[in-house]
TrEMBL record:
Belongs to the SIP oxidoreductase family. InterPro entries: FAD-bd_FR_type, FNR_nucleotide-bd, Riboflavin_synthase-like_b-brl, SIP_FAD-bd, SIP_fam, SIP_rossman_dom. This is FAD-binding FR-type domain-containing protein. Residues 5-130 form the FAD-binding FR-type domain. Pfam families: FAD_binding_9, SIP.
Amino acid sequence: MIKRSPPRLLSVKRSYALTPHMQRVVLTGEQLLDFPVGQEGANVKLLIPQPGQQAPNLAAFRTQAEDRPIVRTYTVRQYRPEDNELDIDFAIHTDAEGRGGPACEWAINAQPGDMIGVAGPGPRKLNSLQADWFLFAADMTALPAASAILESLADDAVGYAFFEVTSSADAQQLRIPAGIKVKWLVHAHPQKESSQLLEQMQDLQWPTGTPSIFVAGEGNAVRKIRQYVLKERGVARDHVYISPYWKIGLVEDEHQVQKRAEMED
């Protein structure tokens, strides 16, 4: 288990659109120097400054103070210790007026030198990497985590990856084993429910042997896939990582409360 370290105050080195609906922000700073290696795919908490602040008040992170940073959960896409750089990818979802949430807006407008806090990382996902075959199902919010794990697989790994993106231009070039077959699915309106990922898994001719499965994305879709994988397919829980990353109609704080309640049921 990784020992919890104090949140780090980092700065933006560069920010650019990876695809039309995915923004990559590269972070750096002296406090990044002891960041643990090999944590690609793990969660971090981003501590975003409140409006009007130049930097987040890290001392207020675990308090209820009014100037507590805005906290959002994201993924370590890549950490390059030789360059002291940390990549965080942001799925860009906006409302009818073109506005995104606090993290989305921060990423889109990030300029070199802008300050942000980073707490973590937490444990890596999908620890069961010794499997006969692999299956990934993720929307754009989970694409960074799924991609990071795929890139860590052995060269002879085989399986399938289904990715749901906002437009065909959001398909990415990934450095993954040749035996992983990737299919990109377009869902142009993420704020509407989609069953595409579930349907792909149901239509799949499942190989024999023990799978290792990663599923993450919108809560309603993930819940139905969880039922299919665990109940209908009977896959053992220790061979799956299934997590709702967000839910239509809820901001992250509301979603986290609901997620904890569901896990306790």
